[in-house]
Amino acid sequence: MKKVLLINTNTETLPYPVPPVGLCLLAAQIEDKFNVIIYDGTFGITEELYKLVKNFNPDYIGFGIRNIDDMVHEKQTFYFDKIRTDFTEPLRKISGATFMLGGSGFSIYPEVLLEYLGVDIGIVGEAEESFPQLLDHLENGKDLSSLKGVIIRNKKFNKPALSKKEGKLSLPFANIDHFISFEPYKSKGAYSIQTKRGCYHHCIYCTYPLIEGSSYKTRDPVKVADEIEQAYNRLGNVTFEFVDSTFNDPPGHAENICREIIKKGIRPRLRTMGINPGNTSKKLFDLMMEAGFSQIDCTPDSASPRMLKILKKNFTLYQLIKTAKLISDNKLPTMWFFLFGGPGENEETFAETFDFIDKYINPEDMVHMTAGLRIYPGTNLHKIAIKEGILQPEDTILKPVYYFSPELGMEKLSHMIKEAAKNRHFCVPSHESAPPKEMLLKALELQSKMIVKEPLFRILLRLRKVMMENRL
User: Fold this and answer.
1) Is the overall model pTM greater than 0.85, yes or no?
2) Which of 140, 206, 278, 298 is the least buried, fewest Cβ under 10 Å from its Cβ?
3) What is the pLDDT of residues 76-109, one digit of tens each?
């Protein structure tokens, strides 16, 4: 039986470590025909990886690429250099395996990354079908050019067809703990659950529709609840995180998932990213609370009516206020995310967002503030940047390039965010979102002593408030 090694190259652990769900799904698809193992690089690269490659001697090595950079212009952490120096280059020296790349980060820059990392084969987009097909073609010497989504360096490739119609998504259970040790994720991480792919919204900066398609393919809510129940029974009451682009789209899907979880009677600890203010209701939040949600992320990006239109958000300020009130009514811990500096941003729109923050956001909740919008190829923001002369059409923009409203500029906007954070301990600029080591250790210590544990970010905010008061 041929050997396949899948490597998680994502070493970022802030704000919390993310297990390699995609690689686990791929491993599940091929384990009946290949001897497959996963090396999880989340918590650092050690000699263990190089020893593993020498001892396991894989025929194929797949590198999963999740992150490109941290999207923080102040420090601009760029991950691909580390992927090259810690993964692809040293492993090439000790292995004759066929290398291949995949993952969401790779799918944004496929041609450029094959060259940059010195790899000849990659998979763009979903890989549950194309990866087994690729291995079959390689095993049998078949022509790869006919495979959708498979790209060969310096050759044209058949881009995967992105669905524009809603449909069903059939996925095996990720069974993350079957392929990797889940123990390191228990304290700060979460068991990731995907209930759908795609996004039919048109936010000008977003890559989700480019990677997953502009419509939703949804999983059966019963199977989602079954996966949570099985993982809960195996691992205990770990945190489960829904990692969809938006949790509460399309209408009714999230509600049905909550209903199925409630039927199980297990009361898991749940959290989710991507609460969309355009599709919230009292019924949704009632079901979420009954199902076991202990934390959510809400990502409106702005609270200025003008900016909501420019960013092509699907909701109004009225709907955003309604969502904030529902969150408040349910006392649901929330991390809010706002982007400042998009096209048309000025002092007035900036003030409108902070007017909303001051009126409607609980100071116990965190407001994450980002200055500047990362420009990704193929997005509407990319087209705007070219039209305004910020970029040239031939620019690869692999290394981070940010858009700042010409009416404010980078320096002024950064100063405005800094000033806004001075008297609001819960408003955290993105470059300060990683807490000092001492503060993090203290927060973890306090959390460990709680009978009913609250989200770590709330403890960190209280410590941050004390620290800011001591500076006065």
Assistant:
1) yes
2) 140
3) 777 888 899 999 999 999 999 999 999 998 999 8
- What pLDDT score does 354 carry? 98
Cβ contacts of 191 within 8 Å, gap of 6 or more = 19, 176, 182, 185, 231, 235, 238, 239, 240, 241
Please tell me the distance from the alpha carbon of residue 10 to that of residue 104, in angstroms, as a whole number: 11
Q: From the CB of residue 53, how many other CB atoms can be counted at a distance below 10 Å?
A: 19
Please answer whether residues 41 and 7 qualify as being in contact, where contact means their C-beta atoms are separated by less than 8 angstroms: yes
Domains, the chain, ordered by start: 3-152 (3.40.50.280), 167-433 (3.80.30.20), 435-472 (no CATH)
Cα-based angle 399, 19, 94 (whole degrees, multiple of 5)? 65
Tokens representing residue 269 in the block: 């600890």
398: helix, strand or coil: coil
| CA–CA distance, 23 with 349 (Å, rounded to integer) | 42
3-state helix, strand, coil in the chain (%, to 5): 40, 15, 40
Find all residues with CB under 8 Å of 129, minimum gap 6, and list them: none
What is the radius of gyration, based on Cα positions, of the chain? 22
- Please report which helix (H) or strand (E) contains residue 427, including its range: strand 427-429
- Residues paired with 3 in a beta bridge: 35
Among candidate residues 403, 420, 404, 407, the one with its CA nearest the CA of residue 351: 420
The contacts of residue 259 (CB under 8 Å, 6+ apart) are 221, 287
Show Cβ contacts of residue 84 under 8 Å, excluding neighbours closer than 6 positions: 116, 117, 118
| 3-class DSSP assignment, residue 63 | strand
